[in-house]
Amino acid sequence: MNADATRPTPVPTAFEVRELFEGLLGRVVEWTAMSGVVDPIDGATVGAYTNDFGVVRALVLCDIALTARAGSAIALLPPMGAESTIKDGLVTAAQFDNLAEILNVAGSMFNRPNSPHVRLDTTYAPRERLPADVAKWTLVPASRIDGVLTIQGYGEGRISVVVAY
Amino acid sequence: MKVVVADDSRVMRQIVIRTLRQAGYDWWEIEEAEDGAVALAKIRESQPDFVLSDWNMPEMSGLDLLKSLRREGNETPFAFVTSEGSPEMRRQAEAEGALFLIAKPFTADVFRDTIDPFIS
């Protein structure tokens, strides 16, 4: 527990999200804002971040396209495999595990000096049942950022980042 | 120069190695280890010049790996590349003799700026 936690967990900026993916994937990533949200009902990988008391403080949701494309790009898996995943709607274990690595590092976006310490607690696979304390935050209208990430050579996918309030 | 990179995530090992190459350390001979215990065995066997290790790993954590090495008198230069870099972790790393701790996400510039002073 950060004894100097005097600021709330921040909602990351589009720049920070893009930089995170670009740095980890080692290729150009572009951000486009979107008005919609990533809805787990449509299939999404969900990273749930908790504070030191195990309370959910933030979520990152990546749709199947982003799971497949980022999960492939980070390991230099062929883009064709990602396209086949998107067509079938079923992510591979490797794509999911690779995206989980990205979501683990994404915890750094929520940790600032003077804000409570949070870390990735659980990564839920697309269409996996979400516990109530995670599900309730997925579609809240505020304290979030939603966008499309376009990964050079792989294509685009949608992401939502939500901070509990 | 022989280097051991320890991380339980294969893709993260790849990213660390890729970033090391981007930072100009493409002449390093890198050996990978998938957890702390495997790293300990490889360090004992190949006697590298430098170890870059994750913090949280199955079998043996990065910190326990460092402690084990120092307990047996092995003074191989050691540093952490971890998902978190809290002040407490940095304090523990330093207390056990780690050279530095780089928190993910990182860039080639961060690697170069952090590692270069120790190489020279």
Explain what the structure shows.
The complex is a heterodimer of chains A (165) and B (120). Helix content of chain A is 32%, strand content 27%. Chain A has 165 residues and is α+β, with helices and mostly antiparallel strands. Chain A has a 6-stranded antiparallel β-sheet with strand order 1-5-6-3-2-4, with helices on both faces. The mean pLDDT of chain A is 94. Chain B is α/β, with parallel strands linked by helices and 120 residues long. Chain B has helices at 10-22, 36-46, 62-71, 87-95, 108-119; strands at residues 2-6, 29-33, 50-53, 78-82, 101-103. Chain B has a 5-stranded parallel β-sheet, with helices on both faces.
Provide a concise account of the structure shown.
The complex is a heterodimer of chains A (165) and B (120). Chain A is of the alpha+beta class. Chain A has helices at 14-25, 64-73, 79-88, 93-106, 132-138; strands at 29-33, 44-51, 56-63, 118-124, 144-151, 155-163.
List the helices and strands and how they pair.
The complex is a heterodimer of chains A (165) and B (120).
Chain A: H1 14-25, E1 29-33, E2 44-51, E3 56-63, H2 64-73, H3 79-88, H4 93-106, E4 118-124, H5 132-138, E5 144-151, E6 155-163
Antiparallel strand pairs in A: 1-5, 2-3, 2-4, 3-6, 5-6
Chain B: E1 2-6, H1 10-22, E2 29-33, H2 36-46, E3 50-53, H3 62-71, E4 78-82, H4 87-95, E5 101-103, H5 108-119
Parallel strand pairs in B: 1-2, 1-3, 3-4, 4-5
Average pLDDT of chain A, to the nearest integer?
Answer: 94
* Main beta sheet strand tally, sense and closure of chain A: 6 strands, antiparallel
Structural class of chain B: alpha/beta
The topology string of helices and strands of chain A comes to HEEEHHHEHEE
Strand content of chain B: 15-25%
